[in-house]
């Protein structure tokens, strides 16, 4: 685990300070004056100016950083910019580089797993896709632990297997849904989870969830369990709203039609068809919620 702040401290700051110290010295400031402006010791200035610190080549050649250094050096040397203003300028620039810029690239190099999120992201953004994805995966893991620790859950697993899925907040495609690769299966009376949850690995249950969301449901998570009248009755008795859809119709329009009749339904089910196993789908705010609802059936 390596934080982007470590990249800033270990890669950016030595490079930036050395560049700025050099630029200030080029403007005939003494080492003492440079030290006062940068808030560091004269010995540190000497190391920076004489190249006694390791610098990052990518940062050294970064046009934006070179322009910033020249602007700060000129302002500080002329007295038109205070050290506080220079600090603010540098802080803003660092945040920009962290949000899909060079620092984000260096962070990705240090932590290759970040590459799977693609595009531009900011690890400091509370609404970033990266953070949302990790929170979604974490919630699915918690839900799976609930199922694993629920005695008798294997009896609720249909022959086709179960899956616990959760979509990103704005998820509208299979790739936006975290789930168990393969399925949760009944192996000798125990719910067996074959692997850690990933995005884009569920088709059927994820498609059911996405169809419900497209039809107006606020649900972000779903879990499929076996169908029988007693399961549906128990859910209704617990206060849940159930609605049936036709398994032999195309999935998306069938679910849309069912939810049009009962928009508040948080349980949708089908009673089977030619070669189609009857199944109940529990919908909810998150994976833990629907896992706990399954636990309460036992």
From TrEMBL:
It comes from Haloarcula pellucida. PROSITE patterns: HTH_CROC1. Residues 20-51 form the HTH cro/C1-type domain. It comes from the Archaea. This is HTH cro/C1-type domain-containing protein. One of its GO terms (molecular function) is DNA binding. It holds the Pfam family HTH_3. Gene3D superfamilies: Class II aldolase/adducin N-terminal domain (3.40.225.10), lambda repressor-like DNA-binding domains (1.10.260.40). CDD domains: HTH_XRE.
């Amino acid at each position: 685990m390596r934080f982007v702040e470590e990249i800033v401290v270990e890669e950016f700051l030595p490079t930036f300070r050395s560049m700025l110290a050099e630029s200030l010295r080029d403007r005939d400031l003494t080492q003492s004056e440079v030290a006062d402006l940068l808030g560091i010791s004269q010995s540190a200035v000497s190391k920076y100016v004489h190249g006694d610190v390791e610098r990052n080549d990518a940062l050294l050649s970064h046009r934006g950083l070179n322009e910033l250094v020249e602007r700060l050096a000129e302002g500080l040397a002329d007295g038109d910019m205070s050290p506080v203003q220079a600090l603010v300028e540098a802080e803003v620039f660092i945040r920009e580089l962290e949000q899909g810029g060079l620092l984000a690239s260096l962070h990705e190099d240090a932590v290759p797993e970040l590459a799977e999120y693609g595009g531009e992201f900011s690890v400091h953004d509370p609404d970033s896709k990266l953070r949302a994805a990790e929170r979604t995966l974490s919630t699915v893991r918690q839900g799976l632990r609930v199922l694993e620790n629920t005695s008798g859950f294997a009896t609720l697993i249909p022959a086709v297997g179960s899956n616990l899925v959760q979509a990103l907040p704005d998820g509208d495609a299979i790739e936006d849904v975290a789930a168990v690769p393969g399925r949760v299966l009944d192996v000798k009376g125990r719910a067996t989870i074959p692997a850690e949850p990933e995005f884009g690995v569920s088709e059927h249950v994820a498609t059911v969830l996405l169809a419900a969301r497209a039809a107006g449901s606020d649900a972000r998570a779903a879990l499929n369990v076996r169908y029988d009248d007693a399961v549906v009755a128990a859910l209704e008795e617990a206060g849940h709203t159930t609605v049936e859809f036709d398994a032999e119709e195309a999935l998306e329009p069938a679910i849309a039609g069912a939810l049009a009749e009962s928009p508040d339904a948080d349980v949708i089910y089908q009673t089977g068809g030619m070669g189609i196993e009857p199944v109940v789908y529990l919908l909810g705010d998150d994976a833990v919620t629907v896992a706990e609802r399954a636990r309460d059936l036992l």
